[in-house]
Amino acid sequence: MNFFRLFLVIIINTAFIFSFSHFGALAYEKVWSQDVVFKEGTTLGSIPISGLNEEQAAQKVKEHIDGWYNSATISLQYQNTSTNVPLTAFLFNVEDSIAQVNDGKVNNLIVSMEDVKLTEAVTTMLTNENLVSVVQFENLNRDIIQAISLTLKQHITLDVHAYINQADLQQEKLSEGTVVFNKEDINMASWMATYSTITIPAQSQLSLLNTIASNTTFTDDELSVIASGIYKAILPTNFTILERHTSRTLPPYSELGYEAKVKQNDMDFVFYNPNQTDYQLKFTEVYNGLLVTLTGAPFMENYEVSLEDKQQFDPKTIIQYDVLLKKNETVVKEKGKPGLLIKVFRETYVNDELTKRDKLSEDFYPPVHRVEVYSISSNTPLNNTNRSEDSSVQDNSSNMPSQEKQDPTTQRDKSPEETWGTEGEITKGMPGVGDKDGN
Fold first, then answer.
1. Angle made by CA atoms 145, 148, 151, in degrees to the nearest 5
2. Which has the least CB within 10 A, 230, 289, 368, 383?
3. Order of strands, sheet of 106-107, starting from the edge strand that comes earlier in the sequence
4. Per residue of the chain (439 residues), what is the pLDDT tens digit?
């Protein structure tokens, strides 16, 4: 019995001593902490807490965090698209942050972020699995957390392009353009041997004439075929056309709305890549012409080309006379060709919704008038040289667009490629013939 009493006394004394030392220390620490304040220059997540004790500092930090939740935006962007990371993805540990404060120094808040919500935000914005698979999420997470923990910034914007592993990014075929031509007239062998692939540098312009530099082995027709193929391939993109020319008449190798004429030392084809990544143009000879393919990182928006308001202008007939022709003989000097007009638009779609519509050009090819040459005879109506061959043919010249109204980046070749006289022209050297009145 005595042993039991002794054992009980020892247990009670031990418990008393332990409780006094433990709870007494806590009580002392609590009282002491109310008196100890942080030194001058102490900040936590850019929040000044100097002159405050731990409890006061914690309260102040929590108030700032509440304000951050109410107004902050964490924005991610790529090309022309953007999205926000939900603020519910972030969790602040104020108690541990206060406990680890280095007195008199700049300190970081302890912040964590749910990886799933960051991944969901990026995936929603990029939509392309190829792009999402090469995003370096760990680095992106780190930089977001660092910006918040150090300064508790209200507005953070990060470009996801900086977190894409370009080496692992699979190049995709984005668009293509085909130019059909007679291979007996145009030879692409020299071009294919030298320029089977052309790189379009990021945020840079590309000039076709500068690309070939001093290489003068190409004809103007060959360069025009190449430029037309490139133009057709880059139309459904966000590239900017800086310089483009068209011919006086639509060449046989070009489709209406897709011509890009090049003349060495005179007419160039120039465009600009506004994106942060390089793109490639790949040239392939096909059985009936040339295929130009654009490859690179996918666009976040979809682009479509719309050709609209096509118009055709009938040619007039020009009557000429030649004393060298036999009586009642007629020669068709120029068969004539109708004039053409087309408007080219680029439409931008985001999630199948039309968000932008730009007029890129208004291509106009004036009509080539029909020229008929008649012999001189006693019954030739010299005073009727301004007539049309067929009264049903209308003069549409008043409806033709002026060149001033065309897109400034698209210019028509103003050098005449066809030669003929004016309406009612009389062949020079004709005896006994003067002006329209016969004087």
1. 140
2. 383
3. 47-48, 43-44, 106-107
4. 555 666 566 677 676 666 655 555 554 455 444 567 899 999 998 899 999 999 999 999 999 999 999 999 999 999 889 999 999 999 999 999 999 999 999 999 999 999 999 999 999 999 888 899 999 999 999 999 999 999 998 999 999 999 999 888 888 999 999 999 988 888 888 899 999 999 999 999 999 999 998 777 899 999 999 999 999 999 999 999 999 999 999 999 999 999 999 999 899 999 999 999 999 999 999 988 999 999 999 999 999 999 999 999 999 999 999 888 888 888 999 999 999 999 999 999 988 899 999 999 999 999 999 999 998 874 555 544 444 333 333 354 555 665 444 554 666 665 443 434 443 343 333 333 333 333 3
CA–CA distance, 294 with 278 (Å, rounded to integer): 11
DSSP assigned state of 384: G
Element (H, E) at 95: helix 94-99
| Residue type at 44 in one-letter notation | L
Q: Decide the pairing of beta strands 370-375 and 317-322.
A: parallel
Burial 61-92 (b: 16+ CB within 10 A, else e): beebbeebeeebebebebbebebebeeebbeb
Return d(Cα 381, Cα 375) in angstroms, integer. 11
Q: What are the DSSP calls for 272-289, one per residue? A: EE-SSS-EEEEEEEETTE
Rounded CA-CA distance 213/260 in Å is 18
Q: How many helices (H) and strands (E) does the chain have?
A: 9, 22
Break the chain into its structural domains and give their ranges.
Answer: 31-166, 172-300
**Tokens read off for 319:** 């009557």
Q: Report, in this order, helix, strand and coil percent for the chain, each rounded to 5.
A: 30, 30, 40
Residue among 314, 368, 311 nearest 340 (CA): 311
Phi, psi of 173 (to 5 degrees): -80, 120
Q: Which residues contact 120 (CB under 8 A, 6 or more apart)?
A: none
> Tokens for 325?
């022709």
Among residues 237, 229, 254, the alpha carbon closest in space to that of 363 is found at: 254
For the chain, the residue count is 439
- In sequence order, the 6+-apart residues with CB closer than 8 A to the CB of 48 are 42
Q: Give Cα separations from 431 to 43, 322, 324, 381, 434 (angstroms).
A: 105, 11, 11, 16, 9
Cα(225)–Cα(240) distance, integer angstroms: 20
**CA gap 319, 421 in Å, rounded:** 9
How far apart (Å, rounded) are the C-alpha atoms in residues 97 and 148?
A: 13
Instruction: Return all residues near 20 (Cβ < 8 A) that are at least 6 apart.
Output: none
